[in-house]
Amino acid sequence: MTKLLSGKVALITGGAFGIGAATARMLAEQGANIAIGYVCDRQAAKEMIAELQALKVEAKSFEADPADTLQVNAMVQTAVAHFGRLDILVNAASIAVCGQVDNPDADMQGLKRQQAVNFCATASTIRTAAPLMRDGGRIITLGSCLSALAGSCGLADFTATQAAMVGFTKGAARDLGPRNITVNVVQSGFVNDELLDPLAKYPTPYKTAVPLGRPALPEEVAAAIAFLASPAASYITGTVLNVDGGYSA
Which GO molecular function, any one, fits this protein according to its record (predicted)? Predict the structure, then answer.
């Protein structure tokens, strides 16, 4: 039986861990060849590639610091040159540095790195990938429901970078629509992984904050990304899909 994404190539930044890794698995299970970007853990990337190759697809990792737009752009170009095409781009690399705005010791470097990784690098990746992407392609960015709801103290900087990406996505969807390239954001809420969850260090109880009463599994967020990457989502663009258990309701 032909798989939905057979012959397609997907590039996933932040693809060695968490939601990015779960997305890579799901797209590979649908037949897509996978390129993953990673920043420092070469062993984790190597293990992820072996796991994807076991699914009988071509897979390769590419190292790039997401805060360095030159490295990120080179990664995109190298991945496309290696695979010969690009059909799906998933921006899953993100960081969160928490701290209240009235703290005189607030880390401005933390703000700058969040801007660099969460907004600038993602925007630059899309700008680099779009001219290389085939018409009818898919671009999905992993965001956070905190873009519209800070939800707790100490998250102003992170919220600002997430909100910026929503605005950029809507504009990019307009720009790329004539080529039938869709551009969307999947926003997670609480995730069952402290590495991925900027709210993990705060004492907001799941049972009162989240109507479903629990954090998401990375695979539950990845499923939404995989849907937007599929042929079934061909008429969805410029939208924000919350996968947050009702946290933003």
Answer: oxidoreductase activity, acting on the CH-OH group of donors, NAD or NADP as acceptor
The pLDDT tens digits for 165-221 are 999 999 999 999 999 999 999 999 888 765 555 555 555 556 678 899 888 999 999
Structure tokens at 108: 């401005």
- C-alpha distances (whole Å) from 211 to each of 159, 196, 215 are 21, 20, 10
Number of domains in the chain: 1
Judge if pTM exceeds 0.90: yes
Sheet order of strands, 240-243 included: 59-63, 33-38, 9-13, 88-91, 138-144, 182-188, 240-243
The CATH number linked to 222 is 3.40.50.720
Residue 132 belongs to domain spanning: 9-241
One-letter amino acid at 142 equals: L
Q: Token pair of 83, please?
A: 């695979």
Q: Per the domain annotation, does 151 fall within a domain? A: yes
